[in-house]
Specification:
Layout lengths: L8 H12 L17 H12 L3 E3 L19 E3 L1 H7 L31 H10 L4 E2 H8 L3 H13 L4 E6 L2 E6 L4
Antiparallel strand pairs: 1-2, 3-5, 4-5
Helix pairs in contact: 4-5
Amino acid sequence: MTKTLRLNDLQLILLSTASQRDDGSLLPPPDSIGERTPAVDKAIKSLLRRGLAAKADASDISDLWPADKNQLIDVQITAAGRAAIGAGQDEGEARSPEEPGEKSRPESEPSSRPVSKIGTVLSLLRRDEGATLDEMIAATGWLPHTTRAALTGLRKKGHSIAKDKRGDTTCYRIAAEV
């Protein structure tokens, strides 16, 4: 089972604000936070360490946290940061190539990606081979009973979920629309 990602209120506010900005910058802090304080710096350091934010350009900055707080530091939200708060990325939005875990996508692959845990489950179920309960648990961090309840919820929303066997393991997938 994967470890659940926990963010405090300050980190959530910083990521949420950055996801709404055109450049994805965490700084300056939003008005709801006020001035940049040591607590804000600590929250940003934590986001950087966890890969939810990244420095845009380190070529001209020798130290990430200079003594002069007024010097602007370009720290931007990453795709992992957007996923952590469930914020989608518009197709027109620019992506930084330095973001950790970014892979180039073939043009034949759709540009939309899951932004929520249920979206992740749906994308797993849409694969030709479908997904096992363990695969869905690993992808979402949910407990088994929560994952099964999500499948029930998808059925109630009109998704036709087929149940097959892959060896001795039960496999779920979205049934082909007729």
